[in-house]
């Protein structure tokens, strides 16, 4: 399915990101309160602390991915940790998550990363199946997943 696009996060996306972050927390039965000021700082500082992608249908945000840098210094390898991945309920199962993951991998390659990692709640079996279908390997402790680029 199409009808959506993926792009880098812009400052005007911060309120929607905060709202979707809180929705992700509710999905995991967590009480969260994303801070738009902190999100703006972390996404748009020089250098950024977090990188973000947003999925949108028309002008409506429908999902996002937030990434953090990581490294395996002992192996001289850079990586990206996919810290958050969220897709609005109506859009789940329609390719948005897969498109976000593909764009995360592309972003990682532009930063000369050799791997991407992601974790998920132990009860989120559908996410675990999705990550494995995209070539991510289960790691312990977990569930954590990693993909070599």
From TrEMBL:
InterPro entries according to UniProt: Acyl_CoA_acyltransferase, Bact_Acetyltransf, GNAT_dom
Region forming the signal peptide: none
TM helices/strands, residue ranges: none
Domain N-acetyltransferase: 4-149
Any Pfam family the entry gives: Acetyltransf_1
Gene3D superfamilies cross-referenced by the UniProt entry: 3.40.630.30
Protein origin, superkingdom: Bacteria
Keyword Hydrolase on entry: no
UniProt key word Nucleotide-binding: no
Listed name of the protein: Predicted N-acetyltransferase YhbS
